[in-house]
Amino acid sequence: TWRLDDFANAAIETIREQVGNKRVICGLSGGVDSSVVAALLYKAIGSQLSCILVDNGLLRKNEQQLVIEEFSSHFQTDLHVVDAEDQFLSDLAGIEEPQEKRRRIGHAFIECFKAEAEKIEEAHFLAQGTLYPDVIESGADKDGPAATIKLHHNVGGLPEELGFELIEPLRDLFKDEVRRLGLELGLPEKLVWRHPFPGPGLAVRCLGEVTRDKLKVLREADAIVVEEIENAGLYRDTSQAFAVLLPVQSVGVMGDARTYDNAVAVRCVNTDDFMTADWSHLPYELLARISTRIINEVKGVNRVCYDISSKPPATIEWE
Ligand code: XMP
After folding, report:
1. Cα 198 to averaged position of ligand 1 atoms, centre (Å)
2. CA of 170 to the centre of ligand 1 (A)
3. How many domains does the chain have?
4. Average pLDDT per consecutive 10 residues, the chain (319 residues; last block may be shorter)
5. For 53, which of 94, 109, 285, 286 is 20 to 30 Å away at the CA?
6. CA 30, chain centre distance (Å)
7. 20 and 130, same structural domain?
């Protein structure tokens, strides 16, 4: 049978042979795949690894900080954090259409990553967390109708024009194997079991135009959703859980004043493969707590809805 420590050792050997004494760049996103790639490379080549985290201003609450802490507690290597919020938000100004948002975010990401990578001397390789399902999916994207459903800019990764030689050590692995490998490499459970988060981040959960103010509201609401699901002990039992800021205002009462504020949708799904998904049948008490907390704690929100649509025909994300 397939053994993980064998896989890790073999992968480390292969990386060492391939890399020699050259430098490798690895993009970090805070997600499982890029963290496992970084951990594997670190084990293989140590200080020849440089990591780049592009903060696009579309990350979740405290996410940049979390990634940095996580990173520096596990690796003593070179980390570059690019604060690119201003650029991404100005590229997104006035844009409402979801695919156009994705396109602009994809371009801005490549630009920022490239500019930072160019500062790293003698970088020769680029490591990516491509998994086996990505390999299959990107094949389908090129030739089939799958491409027209949604653009996944981070799948398939950065373009070859960047001029790096690619290293994709997770190419043969499925997600559950990547998680096991992460644990084997000493990454904490919390990181290894993190829900997936889309490359375009909160931009596709902030429906319509993305603004700094809307992101602030969404970030707070989202943090409450995740925190309450964790507190209820249901994080591992759900596949994704998040808030969506709707482009809708509705009437409410607060004290004796009338409000006209935003509505937030809570989306929580269970799925094996993300191709089909069921909405999570969360306990009413938990939903009530999420709703009360969001309305009480997040300024600008007076209504919370729970999304009870399955995929298909709905998608997991709203955009
Ligand atoms: P949908 O909304 O298509 O999502 O049911 C399926 C899975 O893909 C994630 N998703 C994305 N991931 N870039 C990504 O990296 C994207 O543009 C994107 N759109 C959706 C979504 O979070 C879910 O896990």
Report:
1. 5
2. 20
3. 2
4. 82 96 95 95 96 97 93 88 98 98 96 95 93 75 41 54 91 94 93 95 98 98 98 98 98 94 98 95 98 98 98 98
5. 94
6. 7
7. yes
